[in-house]
Task: inverse folding
């Protein structure tokens, strides 16, 4: 009965590889997000989708490409992984787009690029 | 984040009250949140406050908001060892994004 789930939980890979992280929410929410938490615990939004449409795209390298096949899923594909991509990536969802909409977070995917 | 600031560390004795402070710069912030992150885990929403409120209480948690000074605080009464975690302040404004502070690491000592 997990609300926001992410796979994998841990991902260790070599520089230059391409990898995907998946996120699913069973809350019936319209809006989903990807956040990156760096080694200093600083959290910053990367992308947001509302009903499968991209609404927020922060300054993120083109190597990062989100994909939302339906409103319950938001996947993150990363090409040509770099050392600096090592971080914890959190998916979140909210009922709809808007200031007052509380965001619910997944458990995070810990990515380590060697 | 540069728009939301928190002190980085707080050490408190078990049974005492903890107060975590946060300041923000965006005057259009409408909702302010406190999230808790336990070691190796995701973020858990603790509580939130709407900007037209001064105070919100929820069991051991008390949130105080001074909108004029753009200052938010979270008080945890009777702090327990299970309260050891990182606490993030976040604000939500017109652009629908959550902007987070750097997190305050709370350590509860016996």
Result:
């Amino acid at each position: 009965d997990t609300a926001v789930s992410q796979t994998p939980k841990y991902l260790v890979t070599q520089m230059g590889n391409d990898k995907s992280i998946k996120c699913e929410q069973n809350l019936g929410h319209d809006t989903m997000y990807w956040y990156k938490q760096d080694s200093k615990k600083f959290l910053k939004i990367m992308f947001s989708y509302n009903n499968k449409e991209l609404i927020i795209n922060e300054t993120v390298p083109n190597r990062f490409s989100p994909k939302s096949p339906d409103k319950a899923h938001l996947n993150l594909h990363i090409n040509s992984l770099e050392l600096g991509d090592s971080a914890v990536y959190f998916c979140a969802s909210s009922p709809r787009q808007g200031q007052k909409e509380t965001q619910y977070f997944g458990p995070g995917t810990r990515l380590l690029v060697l | 984040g540069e728009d939301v600031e928190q002190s980085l560390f707080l050490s408190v004795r078990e049974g005492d009250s903890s107060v975590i402070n946060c300041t923000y710069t965006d005057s259009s912030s409408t909702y302010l949140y406190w999230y808790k992150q336990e070691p190796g885990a995701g973020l858990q929403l603790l509580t939130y406050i709407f900007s037209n409120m001064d105070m919100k209480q929820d069991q051991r948690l008390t949130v105080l908001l001074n909108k004029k000074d753009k200052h938010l605080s979270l008080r945890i009464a009777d702090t327990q060892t299970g309260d050891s975690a990182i606490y993030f302040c976040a604000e939500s404004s017109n652009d629908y994004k959550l902007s987070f502070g750097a997190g305050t690491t709370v350590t509860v000592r016996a």
User: Anything to note?
Assistant: Residues 86 and 112 of chain A are 5 Å apart (CA to CA). The first strand of chain A starts at residue 4 and ends at 7.
